[in-house]
Known about the structure:
The complex is a heterodimer of chains A (228) and B (516). By secondary structure, chain A is α/β, with parallel strands linked by helices. Chain A has one domain: Rossmann fold, CATH 3.40.50.300. Chain A is 38% helix and 19% strand. Chain A has eight helices and seven strands. In chain A, strands 1, 2, 3, 4, 5, 6 and 7 form a seven-stranded mixed beta sheet that branches. In chain A, strand 6, helix 5 (150-158) and strand 7 form a beta-alpha-beta unit. The longest helix of chain A is centred in the C-terminal third of the chain and has 20 residues, at 175-194. The two termini of chain A are 32 Å apart. The model of chain A has no long low-confidence stretch (mean pLDDT 86). Chain B folds into two domains: 2-237, no CATH class; 332-501, Heat Shock Protein 90 (2-Layer Sandwich), CATH 3.30.565. Chain B has helices at residues 2-6, 15-33, 36-41, 54-57, 60-74, 96-103, 106-121, 125-128, 184-190, 199-288, 297-327, 340-358, 377-394, 470-480, and strands spanning 10-12, 78-82, 87-93, 133-136, 142-150, 153-165, 196-197, 336-339, 361-366, 372-375, 400-411, 426-436, 484-490, 494-501. In chain B, the strands form three sheets. In chain B, strands 1, 2, 3, 4, 5, 6 and 7 form a seven-stranded mixed beta sheet that branches. Chain B has a five-stranded mixed beta sheet with strand order 9-11-12-14-13, covered by helices on one side. Chain B has a two-stranded antiparallel ribbon with strand order 8-10. In chain B, helix 11 (297-327) packs across helix 14 and helix 12 (340-358) packs parallel to helix 13. The longest helix of chain B is centred in the middle third of the chain and has 90 residues, at 199-288. Chain B is rod-shaped, with a radius of gyration of 48 Å. Chain A binds chain B through residues 41-44, 54-56, 58, 60, 62, 70, 72, 74, 84-87, 89-91, 93-94, and chain B through 46, 48-49, 149-153, 210-211, 214-215, 218-219, 221-222, 225-226, 229-230, 232-234, 236-237, 240.
Amino acid sequence: xxxxxxxxxxxxxxxxxxxxxxxxxxxxxxxxxxxxxxxxxxxxxxxxxxxxxxxxxxxxxxxxxxxxxxxxxxxxxxxxxxxxxxxxxxxxxxxxxxxxxxxxxxxxxxxxxxxxxxxxxxxxxxxxxxxxxxxxxxxxxxxxxxxxxxxxxxxxxxxxxxxxxxxxxxxxxxxxxxxxxxxxxxxxxxxxxxxxxxxxxxxxxxxxxxxxxxxxxxxxxxxxxxxx
Amino acid sequence: xxxxxxxxxxxxxxxxxxxxxxxxxxxxxxxxxxxxxxxxxxxxxxxxxxxxxxxxxxxxxxxxxxxxxxxxxxxxxxxxxxxxxxxxxxxxxxxxxxxxxxxxxxxxxxxxxxxxxxxxxxxxxxxxxxxxxxxxxxxxxxxxxxxxxxxxxxxxxxxxxxxxxxxxxxxxxxxxxxxxxxxxxxxxxxxxxxxxxxxxxxxxxxxxxxxxxxxxxxxxxxxxxxxxxxxxxxxxxxxxxxxxxxxxxxxxxxxxxxxxxxxxxxxxxxxxxxxxxxxxxxxxxxxxxxxxxxxxxxxxxxxxxxxxxxxxxxxxxxxxxxxxxxxxxxxxxxxxxxxxxxxxxxxxxxxxxxxxxxxxxxxxxxxxxxxxxxxxxxxxxxxxxxxxxxxxxxxxxxxxxxxxxxxxxxxxxxxxxxxxxxxxxxxxxxxxxxxxxxxxxxxxxxxxxxxxxxxxxxxxxxxxxxxxxxxxxxxxxxxxxxxxxxxxxxxxxxxxxxxxxxxxxxxxxxxxxxxx
Lengths: 228, 516
């Protein structure tokens, strides 16, 4: 977290990590589609035309809180291919939260494991505690055959601290839910570490609403503010 | 061409500013090619951790062209400033005389300077929200200011104008009080060259321009990030590799030192072992010869065994010493004339007792065209002896060993020009084949037999003795002569070792030993 006192600007960074071709960029593209078209028009398309991510992708989301603080959240993806180790480490530097995008296919188990270990090592190398940093795991590609069953994923979820999300990023399914999940963890961790709500006069609710207003996404079970 | 003819209307900044910006471009190019260290020393830090400046994103020279074509099309000037107020682009049209006339007046100049400062830097609040701001000039002209925003950050502003607002019928009131005979009609006359437009039209043009600049900024942002990140990852990768290399070098140096110590230790030990052994063999000999008095048949037999085993041990220690010398590269090949016939005879006599004991027959055939050769006689004798010892070791009782020597013309197979796309040159060699009717070597082990300390049967309970040095020594000595050695074998029915030696090696060589 970086707070720029003069400009009253809060910078947060979330990194989408995972093995090659697990759908990290697809996640950002799906979020990009949720953006208000007016905002979107002023961003270059993130479409990489089917190319593999060479270095990284970046999607900035920003909003102003009622207390007049500009919250600027940057969503990054790392290149998944093994050779881009250095880039992954650089992108991971100073991250506030991680979304691990796993490939649900049974055959991708080894790649998932290796990438996860790699993420932990790179978090450590950057001075983060991999056990403490807010993180969620998204099991992507739920629509493919030969994937881990829902039951298996539920079991898997019990075996670790990270909440599990299921997604078909290519159809936009589960992408916003994953983001919501990581934002909640991020807010809580900031609250615990920096007394976020007192210092910046922003509630968890306002924080999440701020992001999802930009993303034009109606969260399940949440009434628009002001109707309560 | 019409476009070109109308271009002179567009007034770009004086040449000197071009120069100035040219230098700026050079500086930014330098930064692009700077190494990670230099980037850090410039205190810029990682591209991911700092704010990007507008000047880094726009290729100013080509962007100025884009602006110029816009200005030409809409007849309204464009200026672009970054957040620090640095002017990046300034393309003017039509207002030169108007502004020049005002600037020639003292009061006009002062007011103009203040206004320009405001347009450049004033923190108009709506700009942060992405909204366009109107700013009127005291002379009645108007500017529209549009923010350049990327990723929620204000990067700079675009100033459109000046233009004459539709409703304006005379110069602004402030100009009335200008002294020094300031002529309002003259000023108004200059207004003919300035575009008259309403805000709505200009705002449409701005929206059009905003789409262009937003796209350029977004693409440039991505390209800049990618490029810097590429550089940063290469730099950090390089640093990591350099560190690994340093560690490897240290380890290698240590290994080399250990290897040298091992070799000298081996040489010393062999020497120290040989000294007492010489006494053991010598005194056994003296006992056998009765120099210390007569012995019974049984006693003689026992002492004979002591002597025989002592000699075996000596042989073993000698080959250890040889291999340690070879290992250290500490042997030279002398090139004196010798006779292969003599060499074989010497070798033959040294294995004769063992041959006889095992009941093996040895046939030697030497072709008549094999004449005088050049090489290291002692080493050639050892090569032949080792091959014979090897053959007799692995040939069961009643078997036979054939030695054939002939001149042989062939291409090199394993060394020198061997293996080239077009094969090697044909050369004349003396060829020695040592064939036995022994147990043979399994095909998958055949590559290994010339390695030091190698034994096909490596089990503790193996049937055949030795430490696996004989053939390694053969290969090393043959290589040193510029020759070749290979083996062909049928498991169960026998093995043929063949060596090729150049009759006159070009120079004495040195050779290492293939280690296990």
